[in-house]
Amino acid sequence: MIRIAVDGMGGDRAPRAVVDGTVQAAHLLNEVEIILVGRKDRLSKELSRFHPLPKNLKLHDAPEVIGMGESPAISVRRKPDSSICQMVELAKAKQVNAIISAGNTGAMVVAASLGLGLLEGIERPGIAILLPSLNGLTLLIDVGANIDSKPEHLLQYGLMGSVVMRRVVGRKNPSVGLLNVGEEESKGTDFHRQAFKLLEESSLNFIGNMEGREIYTGKCDVIVCDGFVGNVVLKVSEGMALAIRELQVREMKRTLLNKLGAVLLLPAFKRLKKQMDYTEYGGAPLLGIDGVCFISHGSSNAKAIRNAIRAAATFVAHEVNQQIVAATHQMARQKVH
Length: 337
Prior knowledge:
2 domains, alpha/beta, 11-stranded mixed sheet, Isopropylmalate Dehydrogenase, single chain
């Protein structure tokens, strides 16, 4: 049985939204045991709303909480009994196969990196997020785990992203692009030119530089960048999606003709909204960690938590980490030859 630990205290809507999503997932995923980690009294109170409780749902007491605004390194060191740190301990002891949190992202990265270590051949973890595109899904990595990247890290991001797109999404030979300010090889800083060379000389299906305007075209399956740039792209994308949605609503209400047209287009609008809804994907995997670790949006609702649990179970079932290690070994052998 797959066992997944969920941070019951993490996120802007915790613990209620987390508990609701966890209960939903427990009903849907009978083959998965879910362990809610957090303050037992508060979690028990939320769970009392459900009768009967799913048999595959357990509690693990963690009396401390790391707040969203706390320093990651300091809070992890000073709060070993926090829900995030206790989840990592469960994973380290092999009592769970995956951990999920919508709480402090930095604390999750620090705790998982220190407590679980990195996969063989990986120097820095990267947060990968699946974005909707004109050609299905595109994976962007890194979106915030490592803002001080080296060119070698971007090569490793490309490798890990390719494994995810191949094993989980089903792309046979995922294409990899480097996010840059222009398509030419000479574009960007020295950092980008070095990363370009490493990617070009690798066995990955590298197709060159990708400009920001190409992220959502589906031209590329995996786009690599440093965590600073990736996080800016992510936040701009979130803001743009909200703005477009609001502008659509305003235009639909502006005239009677627009209102009539909106009624006819309502099914299409609903499908579009679903494609752009982050809750459909649940969370972003922290790739490179020696364990399955998912980071959910801070404002995650029950649906997002439920889908994050489902996604984590899929990662475990598809043995993504084992495939990443195998891919690093293969790349190392090719480099020698």
